[in-house]
Amino acid sequence: MFESRASAWGETFMQIAAADHLLVLPVPFRQVDGQLFVEHQAAHGLLCWRQHFESLIIAAPVLPETGVTQERLREIAWVPAAALVSNVQLVPLPWAYRLRDYLKHRRTVQATLTECIRQSRYLQFAIGGLHGDWAATAAQIAQRLDRPYAVHMDRVEHEVIRLNSRQAGMSRRLRNMFVSPLMRRFHANIIRNASVSLCHGADCLAAYRHLNVHSHLVHNIHLEAADVASHDDTFAKAARIADERPDEELSLVYSGRAVADKAPLEWLHALGLLKASGTKFRATWLGEGDLRTQAIEQCRALGLADCVAFPGFESDRAKVLAAIQQAHMFVFTHITPESPRCLVESLLMGTPIIGYESAYAHDLIREHGGGQLVSCHDVRSLAMAIAKLGASRPLLADLTRRARRDAGQLDAESVFAHRSRLIKQYAGVRREPPAAPETPPPAIVTARFVQRPV
Q1: How far is it, in rounded angstroms, from Cα 295 to Cα 299?
Q2: Spatial separation of the C-alpha atoms in residues 310 and 294, rounded to whole Å
Q3: Which of 98, 165, 180, 379 could pair covalently with 269 via S-S, beta carbons 3.0-4.6 A apart?
Q4: Do residues 108 and 40 share a domain?
Q5: Considering the domain boundaries, does residue 170 fall inside one?
Q6: Domain check: are 278 and 307 in the same one?
Q7: Are residues 163 and 105 in the same domain?
Q8: Is 425 helix (H, G, I), strand (E, B) or coil?
Q9: How far is CA 167 from CA 47, 108, 261, 292, in A?
């Protein structure tokens, strides 16, 4: 079980015990007055992993309490570590995405991760950065120890960086021109040497499958079968929609961070065109993000304040899911190759997805067509697609039924079982690691890193 003998940051010393499965993740811990907290969906993930592995070691960075991350703290729901399932060891690591911080903590973290790897049977690393990406560091250590490992990718990170830099200042664009190709080569080495490559979503699979013969399409969702809309509920919703008049108000929703990847300003542009077409609607964007304030200002400038709302982050997941289920359409404007869970959540709640084309979105609805996709950045076509569905409620009702069928078995139990099978199939051969040095290493210090304002 989780054990910690310290009461405050800077005093936690943890002896790593043998475990069935090690995960090194980018999803951060939080530490307040010596107590560790875990992001609520990550906490649910630990419960799911424990259904397939006897014991876990989870290593992740600790989010700083000061500086630019204050906004991030507000938009995350946290679960105390003491409330987690048994047989889980948490290993907090420093937040070191600045080069100087990475160089300062590298050796100590390498020693910590080496011990975690030695004590674990199965290894899984969720990569997504350069320096400060401790999952990538762990993969390099596993290679040196000749240990098989699984690598997991949520998005094509080097492309995300390149695309997001288009709207950044000159210094950031120049920096990303250097970082993006470096990251591409760095990640390619880690993926190429993995025993199995877990590609979350079709965009990741398309980008990385050539690097590893054991590349597999996987999904990540944190909704249990009991949380999602039943087929009966969805068919009843579709019947209500089919009986609506074409001029009745549409309910549109999006759930996610208001950041550059999600293009909230393009979302608003499309809604502005939709309003100009005469379509009645009410739209809600649930989520925080560094573009939320600008989006609210743009909303007013476009004359949309009476029909568009940005209420911010909603910590109650049941309320978010209810808002998605009650909406006619889930409208999104994702512009980077990533795999947002919100699209799967929408399908599971029986709400069709209407937005920008991507391999990920296309793959989700390819079997039954539970949505409509337009070219990326084509806000005019997006507005037209929404308007046409609003004008033909029987067509929208049919799309609603198709959306729930497209979700299939994409619930938490199914997707975690799938990933666990792949890890055990391909990364389960435990080669003998090199012998430990005769002189015992110093005690593993897992949370003595001093956080500085960022």
Answers
A1: 6
A2: 11
A3: 379
A4: yes
A5: yes
A6: yes
A7: yes
A8: helix
A9: 39, 37, 11, 16
Place of tokens 């875990």: 38
Same domain, 375 and 248: yes
Domain count, the chain: 2
DSSP state, residue 312:
E
Asked whether residue 181 falls in the same domain as residue 286, the answer is no
Cβ 370 vs Cβ 399: under 8 Å: yes
CATH number at residue 350: 3.40.50.2000
**17 token code pair:** 């015990």
Tokens of 351: 């709400």
Are the C-beta atoms of residues 134 and 105 closer than 8 Å to each other?
Answer: no
CA–CA distance, 120 with 430 (Å, rounded to integer)? 9
Task: Give me the DSSP letters along 248-272.
Answer: SPEEEEEES--SGGG-HHHHHHHHH
In a domain, 388, yes or no: yes
Domain that holds residue 276: 227-407
Nearest to 96 by CA among 69, 130, 68: 130
Gap between the Cα atoms of 373 and 115, Å rounded = 47
Q: Give yes or no: residues 312 and 243 share one domain.
A: yes
Q: Which long-range contacts (CB under 8 A, 24 or more apart) does 30-33 make?
A: 30/62, 30/63, 30/65, 30/73, 30/76, 30/78, 31/62, 31/65, 31/92, 31/447, 32/65, 33/7, 33/8
* pLDDT values of the chain reduced to their tens digit, one per residue, 454 residues: 444 332 233 434 468 999 999 999 998 999 888 889 999 889 999 999 999 999 999 999 998 877 655 666 677 888 998 888 789 999 999 999 999 999 999 999 999 999 999 999 999 999 998 889 999 999 999 999 999 999 999 999 888 888 877 766 777 778 778 888 899 999 999 999 999 999 999 999 999 999 999 999 999 999 888 889 999 999 999 999 999 999 999 999 999 999 999 999 999 999 999 999 999 999 999 999 989 999 999 999 999 999 999 999 998 999 999 999 999 999 999 999 999 999 999 999 999 999 999 999 999 999 999 999 999 999 999 999 999 999 999 999 999 999 999 998 788 999 999 999 999 999 874 544 444 444 443 333 333 333 333 3
User: Coil, helix or strand for 20?
Assistant: strand
Q: What is the largest CA-CA distance in the chain?
A: 79
